[in-house]
Automatic annotation (TrEMBL):
It comes from the Bacteria. InterPro entries: Cro/C1-type_HTH (IPR001387), Lambda_DNA-bd_dom_sf (IPR010982), MLTR_LBD (IPR041413). This is Helix-turn-helix transcriptional regulator. Residues 16-88 form the HTH cro/C1-type domain.
Length: 285
């Protein structure tokens, strides 16, 4: 970020904090009304008191000065300002900090309508969790990923107890012979997938499930261990995805991905058929 962009971000952060402070009623927060107020809402010293910060710190923040903002201080400020989820996310983004409570929000119960939403999509579609395990998929995805998403959970591709690990994309790509037959340019795609996963997973590497996934793949797959050690990082982008389907032959799709607004850790992936693809008979969801 260049100096002008950083200064603009700090000004936006200060303006946001001031606007949120001025919309709060002292009485609603249990504070005495005090003498006549020249401006609406809380005074800076009152916000400082509620958030455990100094009045000078709050003043400099609202003035857009270049100060260091810890995650703990931002959390206290967010609670003092009574920010909602979207407002809190905006505060942390303006401060260029990762919200320590974001992972807890991502673990909230999934919307009840989510499976029906995925099932209603005509093209192959599925939802990935932060470990890149498929949570929900539709009939078109079950048909396309024959040997993985069709039928019962296939285990974790390493001969252990069947379960959710069998739906993990990384374990499918690196541990299943089916993946090597299904995915054209398998080795190139595998390299790209590891770089994309590293970019997304690094902020969550303290999560025991992600650490266990990476450690298990490094143990079970020499290819994954080699690619993980390469330290490549790439954004998860769309593009053409080619398959050699056991029944439909050569297939080509345009992949697009979306982050769920209410669950930032979940990704919706859709594969849009390209011209020339046969129309498959979709399996039941």
């Amino acid at each position: 970020m260049n100096p002008s962009e950083d200064a603009e971000r700090r000004r936006a952060l200060g303006a946001f904090v001031r606007a949120q402070r001025e919309r709060l009623s002292p009485e609603a927060l249990g504070l005495p009304p005090g003498p006549r107020r020249r401006t609406p809402g809380l005074r800076r010293e009152e916000l400082a008191q509620l958030s455990g910060l100094s009045t000078t710190w709050v003043t400099w923040l609202e003035q857009g000065r270049e100060i260091s903002l810890s995650r703990a201080a931002l959390s206290r400020l967010s609670r003092a300002l009574q920010l909602g989820r979207a407002e809190r996310t905006y505060l942390f983004e303006l401060a260029a900090r990762r919200d320590p409570e974001r992972q807890d929000a991502e673990g909230a119960p999934l919307p009840a309508a989510l499976p029906a939403c995925v099932a209603a999509i005509a093209c192959p579609a599925y939802i990935l969790d932060p470990c890149w395990t498929v949570l929900h998929w539709n009939g078109a995805a079950a048909h396309l990923f024959a040997g993985w998403l069709d039928g019962d959970a296939p285990g974790d591709m390493a001969g252990e107890t069947p379960g959710a690990d069998g739906r993990n994309m990384l374990r499918f790509i690196f541990l299943s012979p089916v993946a090597r037959r299904l995915i054209q340019d398998h080795d190139a795609r595998a390299r790209r997938v590891v770089a994309e996963f590293r970019a997304e997973a690094t902020p969550r590497m303290t999560d025991p499930s992600i650490r266990a996934l990476v450690d298990g793949l490094r143990r079970d797959s020499p290819d994954f261990a080699r690619l993980w050690a390469a330290q490549d990082v790439q954004g998860r982008e769309g593009g053409l995805r080619r398959f050699c389907h056991p029944r439909d032959g050569a297939l080509c799709f345009e992949q697009v991905g979306f982050t769920l607004a209410s669950q930032p850790g979940l990704k919706l992936t859709m594969l849009l058929p390209q011209a020339g693809n046969p129309v498959p008979a979709q399996a039941a969801p």
